[in-house]
TrEMBL record:
The record marks K37, K259 as: Transition state stabilizer. The gene is argB. It holds the Pfam family AA_kinase. Substrate binds at G72, G73, R94, N199. GO terms for biological process: L-arginine biosynthetic process via ornithine. This is Acetylglutamate kinase.
Amino acid sequence: MTDDGLLPVADPMQQAATLADALPYLRRYAGDTIVVKYGGHAMGNAELAKGFGSDIGLLKLVGINPIVVHGGGPQINKMLERLQVRSHFVDGLRVTDESAIDIIEMVLCGSVNKQVAGLINRAGALAVGISGKDGGLIKARKLVRKVKDPASGTEQILDLGFVGEPDRVDPQVLYALSGSGLIPVIAPIAAGYAGETYNVNADTIAGAVAGAVHATRLLMLTDVPGVLDRNGKLIPELTAAEARKGIESGMISEGMIPKVETCLKAVREGAKAAVIVDGRVPHACLLELFTEAGSGTMIRRDGSID
Ligand SMILES: Nc1ncnc2c1ncn2[C@@H]1O[C@H](COP(=O)(O)OP(=O)(O)O)[C@@H](O)[C@H]1O
Ligand SMILES: CC(=O)N[C@@H](CCC(=O)OP(=O)(O)O)C(=O)O
């Protein structure tokens, strides 16, 4: 840092030119809402995490309204292990019993949520950590997972315990925070109608929130460059119809299926576009928003051109 708090610049002309290049993009997104799902590698790496905090702060500073939804699967694993509580996953969802739900809420809302808000606060912006329970943001219902028994062909219902899915999203609390110059940071925990607590997959929450606030972009940070074709080449853009075809054909598989389905749901429910972005790349959010090429795979509403 220099005495006046600015970063030393190797080539000031280059930096000025770069800032000027960003101007059309700043205009394009001014006043818009961008929902960012933060997780994966970007969260576990101190340098990337610091960059993420300042990128989110920068978005707010230039008149964009970022909303962050964070995960925390690895952090939950660590704490459950420490407390010797077993957990296992079905289709990427953690089966959550009564002894696990309290610990999960403690880790996500108490620890991870404050860490993520802290990253943004340390960058000089003002973030407020909440969960889906706060301000009536998300009402969840128990997730019903049906599986077909391959032997008999009959359908069975799997009990995943306190795993929920968003039923109703009321974004008033998000508008109140964003409108007061604050950045909401949401932990993926929600209340049921009888006051029970549900553990909800963070991608799912991000998609539901992006749809409810009609976000201009949902950015899903992950550990791959985006959706890859069968030759391992990045697909920069998919229409909703193409994405559905990719799942049907098996080109999109495993953990990428729920991610793409979340994007499809978000654009169906009101988001303009969703982008699967490589969170391992420094400043991935800025690269996606402020460059022509972008950085991942964009999934648009059918018929949408921007
Ligand atoms: N077409 C595809 N393009 C990219 N990744 C794919 C594709 N099909 C399956 N995958 C798998 O999906 C994974 C991403 O999902 P996941 O690991 O659940 O992400 P995260 O941990 O960030 O939520 C990739 O690591 C890859 O193994
Ligand atoms: C139901 C369910 O599986 N909930 C997740 C919530 C956290 C999450 O989604 O974190 P990532 O984004 O890091 O995976 C869990 O318990 O791990």
